[in-house]
Specification:
It is built from 14 helices and 25 strands. It is an alpha+beta fold. The termini are far apart. Helices cover 30% and strands 25% of the residues. Helix 8 runs parallel beside helix 9.
Length: 507
């Protein structure tokens, strides 16, 4: 598989594209007002412990409090993370023997790390199990485990790295060896570990001396973190169109002693880099509801707060007379496209896929196998159920940040994100209800209705206009004024004599 990382940097944002076999599969966007938060460590103050939810809400300086579930408190308790009563830790008590609600209390200081960014009205999710990521390993203080990346396929290499990690692991620290460590010797891993240990000592010092809420540790920026996490030996090249970003990334790679430095290229063309690599059109299509496939079929992707629904349709596909074979071919292509779109859009949470109905169990098995194969390339963790008798696949995908569509777009101020606005008939019905309430009051029977020009035309465009019908029905004089600044469904009702706006009073 041919992998490339393409980076476009402007004054307003940095966009990083991961391309596999000339197809865009992941995109990362960072702006000055929206920076990556996962991995940041804060010293916060517990605002509320809610036993019924098995969680605590923590003020770390955000608009919404951070959410700490008791299951994210880890297997060990450390004095550094919370001011815990000594008697709870006497006699060698294990963390599992202690009720988390007894360890946490309101107004208590605590150090936490963000594991999921704020999404919609929800604050960030945090953990007390702090970790520090390096180029070749992740340092896990107050843990005893050693792990090796599952992406390393060689059993011998995994065994070698695990033995090395056990050899160099400091006491009371866990180590997780990353994919980039493949083929690295003991000295290289030791150098990375020493940098992480120095950073951890600085974090400890800051936690002890600062007052909450306060940012203690900021992980690398988006570009550097992507290079650290994704730039492995199987990536053919990294192409960057910014000299500043090029210098930052080459400096980082030199600092960690990476041999991948020669794979970094500066893009000199006047043509926009995303246009040159055909990424811009793919990015625009990733924001659309309908995604066409090469065989003429298409999928519809609908994102809601609760779940994401995906509908598979045959579209313009005309295959053989055998409906089962046609359905299988469309569903197989859809499986590949769905996996790519979920990665590209970074859609997480609950996902329901409605495939075209098939009768044969063997064909359903082929669809599931195709999904498993495609999601094997995904860094996010996914869980899937078999196709139900209704032709649905229910799955979940790990979510650590808002979906791409919420990074690039914002809810429409006209429809508040629903995609729908009231019809002219609905607006007229609302206006009539206000007039009916108005005439039952003691106000003067002459009013002015201000509305958008299109609504004014709708009120006047019949031989016996809708305005006249309202006047006759309620025995009231109605003058109409067009206001081009108003939205199509907005209107105001004014008392003609005083020009008092009574819309809200009778709404």
């Amino acid at each position: 598989m041919k992998k490339e990382i393409i980076i476009n940097s402007t004054n307003e944002d940095t966009r990083i594209a991961l391309v596999e076999n000339s197809k865009l599969v992941e995109i990362f966007v960072e702006r000055p007002d929206y920076e990556r938060m996962v991995g940041d460590i804060y010293k916060g103050r517990i605002r509320r412990v809610v036993k019924g939810m098995q969680a605590a809400f923590i003020n770390i300086g955000f608009e919404q409090d951070a959410f700490l579930h008791f299951s994210d408190m880890g297997n060990k308790v450390n004095q550094l993370f919370a001011d815990i009563d000594e008697e709870l830790l006497e006699n060698g008590n294990k963390r599992s023997d202690v009720d988390p609600s007894d360890l946490l209390r309101n107004n208590q200081e605590i150090a936490v790390q963000i594991i999921k960014e704020p999404i919609s009205s929800k604050g960030p999710r945090v953990t007390t199990e702090l970790t520090l990521p390096g180029r070749y390993m992740v340092l896990a203080p107050n843990q005893d485990r050693v792990g090796v990346s599952r992406k390393l396929s060689s059993i011998q290499e995994r065994k070698r790295l695990r033995n090395l990690a056990r050899k160099i692991r400091p006491k009371n620290f866990g180590l997780i060896i990353r994919t980039a460590a493949e083929g690295k010797d003991e000295e290289t891993l030791k150098a990375d570990l020493q940098k992480l240990m120095r950073t951890w000592r600085e974090v400890q010092s800051e936690i002890k001396k600062t007052d909450p809420p306060m940012l203690i540790f900021k992980d690398l920026g988006m570009a550097s973190s992507v290079i650290r996490d994704l730039f492995t030996s199987d990536v053919e090249r990294v192409v960057i169109d910014s000299r500043k970003m090029y210098r930052e990334i080459t400096h980082y790679l030199k600092d960690v002693g990476s041999e991948l430095l020669q794979k970094v290229e500066y893009f000199k063309s006047r043509e926009p880099i995303f246009d040159f690599f055909n990424i811009e059109p793919e990015l625009q299509r990733s924001l659309e509801r309908k995604v066409w496939m090469k065989n003429g079929g298409y999928i519809i992707i609908e994102q809601t707060e609760a779940l994401t629904s995906i509908d598979v349709n045959s579209g313009r596909y005309f295959g053989r007379k055998d409906h089962e074979k046609n359905s299988l071919k469309i569903n197989l292509e859809a499986s590949r496209e769905i996996a790519r779109q979920l990665r590209l859009r970074d859609i997480g949470g609950l996902i329901v896929i409605d495939f075209i109905d098939m009768e044969q169990e063997s064909n359903k098995t082929k669809i599931m196998n195709e999904l498993y194969k495609e999601f094997a390339h995904d860094r996010a963790i996914s869980r899937m159920e078999d196709i139900s008798r209704f032709g649905l696949v229910e799955m979940t995908r790990q979510r650590t940040r808002p979906s791409l569509i919420y990074n690039i777009n914002e809810p429409c101020p006209c429809c508040d994100g629903t995609g729908l606005v009231p019809t002219q008939g609905t607006v007229l019905a609302n206006l009539e209800r206000i007039i009916r309430r108005y005439v039952s009051s003691d106000y003067d029977r002459r009013i002015i209705v201000q509305a958008h020009p299109e609504m004014v035309e709708y009120l006047n465009n019949k031989r016996i206009s809708r305005r006249l019908r309202l006047m006759w029905k309620y025995w009231i004089k109605i003058n109409i004024e067009a206001d081009g600044k108003m939205r199509r469904w907005e209107f105001r009702v004014l008392v003609k004599k005083t020009r008092e706006d009574v819309t809200e009073k009778f709404k």
